[in-house]
Write a structure and sequence with these properties.
Pathway: Cofactor biosynthesis; coenzyme A biosynthesis; CoA from (R)-pantothenate: step 5/5. By secondary structure, the chain is an alpha/beta fold. It has helices spanning 14-23, 31-37, 44-53, 66-73, 77-104, 136-145, 151-159, 164-170, 181-197, 204-209; strands at residues 2-7, 28-30, 109-113, 128-133, 173-176. It is globular. Bound molecules: dephospho coenzyme A (COD) and adenosine-5'-triphosphate.
């Protein structure tokens, strides 16, 4: 089964692109969603988070207070790494379970939406990387408008992620999401034949760094002068 990684910085439009893939009948698994599944109340994952960060990260219903935990871990890289060390192996395990189920139901390809695809080295394990890209200011404005995070909170997450230029250099396909959703949708539709056939271009960074390619067919030699163009020798002069 072919796994395509879908990634991008915060607010780039990963979920928007994921929805379009799903509308096209391609299953999408979201690492953000799995990161919620592994900390549901009563789960072993939530127990591990509480053991590491204390009961203070739970709300009155015993659920993880994600905003509170986010405020803690995005201020301190060592605490963020501590949380990632708890959650990432559990997310990976869950993903393998979902993959097994999808393969058993006859699916040939799946899109895995992972914000930290490059940061976790997962880009090396997928068939190809699809990047959703948009200018930083636009991404911040979108997330703030979504009313989920404040601008300083978004900036703190940005700081914990790879920059977009590095992502662009390493992605096989780039969806430019700096216009409306119809523009994004058209790019996803244009991408489908390549994903279905497995035709993967080289990342822009690799192409730029590579030695100039030799022409596939050497240029033809210059044409030989046609014999007919040689003026005929004049007949020998009569002997005196
Ligand atoms: C800190 C948590 C509880 C905050 O939860 P919250 O509901 O506010 O955010 P959510 O999980 O929906 O993530 C929203 C976006 O934040 C960014 N983000 C999330 N985790 C991280 C991280 N560890 N590093 C950088 N950016 C991150 C991503 O762009 C993501 O799409 C949560 O993000 C979390 O558990 N993070 C650690 C797990 C992780 O690395 N998840 C990313 C998927 S691999
Ligand atoms: N092309 C677009 N035009 C207008 N709004 C958009 C566009 N793309 C995405 N949005 C909106 O911007 C917000 C962020 O998009 P989305 O949630 O898809 O990003 P994301 O990369 O999944 O974000 P996060 O990293 O926070 O999970 C959403 O409210 C979404 O509806």
């Amino acid at each position: 089964m072919d796994v395509y990684g879908l990634t991008g910085g915060i607010g780039s439009g990963k979920s928007a692109a994921a929805e379009i893939f799903e509308d096209c009948g391609i299953p999408v698994v979201s690492a953000d969603e799995l990161s919620r599944v592994v900390v549901t109340p009563g789960s072993e994952g939530l127990g591990a988070v509480v053991a590491a960060f204390g009961e203070g990260v739970l709300d009155e219903n015993g659920e993880l207070n994600r905003r509170k935990l986010g405020a803690v871990v995005f201020k301190d890289p060592s605490l963020r790494q501590k949380l990632e060390a708890i959650l990432h192996p559990r997310i990976r395990e869950r993903f393998q379970d979902v993959l097994t189920t999808l393969a058993a139901t006859g699916h040939k390809l799946v899109v895995y939406e992972v914000p930290l695809l490059f940061e976790t080295g997962l880009d090396k394990q997928v068939k190809a990387v699809i990047l959703v890209s948009a200018p930083e200011a636009q991404r911040i404005a979108r997330v703030v408008a979504r009313d989920k995070l404040t601008e300083p909170e978004v900036r703190a997450r940005l700081a914990a992620q790879l920059d977009d230029a590095s992502r662009r250099a390493r992605a096989h396909f780039i969806l430019e999401n700096d216009k409306d959703l119809a523009h994004l949708k058209q790019q996803v539709l244009d991408l489908l034949p390549a994903l279905r056939s497995g035709t993967i271009p080289r990342p822009a960074g690799e192409v730029k760094d590579a030695a100039p390619a030799r022409p596939a067919v050497p240029p033809p030699p210059p044409p030989a002068r046609p014999a007919a163009s040689v003026p005929p020798r004049p007949p020998p002069l009569p002997k005196p």
